[in-house]
Design brief:
globular; alpha/beta
Length: 144
């Protein structure tokens, strides 16, 4: 999660909403991403999706079984869906997202028994630090 936080801070420095994500397999980081919606002019350029895409390339296939995705903010519905579709085994996230969280806060997509894959979830890791990065970013934005 510390590396994901570094990526989030780098995103903030670029003017992006500070969210960072890494994909780990067998204790090794195989991919990472941070928000690039503004840079790429792409509404789908969320940290999680970029990390998932990079992990699929690194592993040579779309099934990310045996991986853990670490992300600083609870994933939205789009990212939660991608996590399920990619067959990520475990999700670890920092801060809850009361306005868009689709893992525990507003929805529970990654654990929905109607879907063909469920993800083990560990919420709240370094939650205060992850939340502070976001709060500080938006406070600075409001002051501009």
């Amino acid at each position: 999660m510390r590396r994901a936080l570094e990526l989030a801070r780098e995103a903030a420095a670029r003017g992006e909403v500070p969210v960072g994500a890494i994909v780990v397999r067998n204790g090794e980081i195989i991919a990472e991403g941070s928000n690039r919606r503004e840079e790429d002019k792409d509404p789908t350029a969320h940290a999680e999706l970029l990390a998932i895409r990079a992990a699929a390339r690194a592993l040579g296939g779309w099934r990310l079984t045996g991986t853990t995705l670490y992300v600083t903010l609870e994933p939205c519905a789009m990212c939660a869906g991608a996590i399920v579709l990619a067959r990520v085994g475990r999700l670890v996230y920092g801060a809850d997202d009361p306005k868009g969280g689709a893992v525990r806060t507003l929805y529970r997509l990654v654990e929905d028994e109607r879907l063909n894959h469920r993800v083990q979830v560990t919420p709240g890791i370094l939650a205060e630090e992850c939340g502070k990065v976001l709060r500080d970013f938006f406070r600075r934005r409001r002051e501009e």
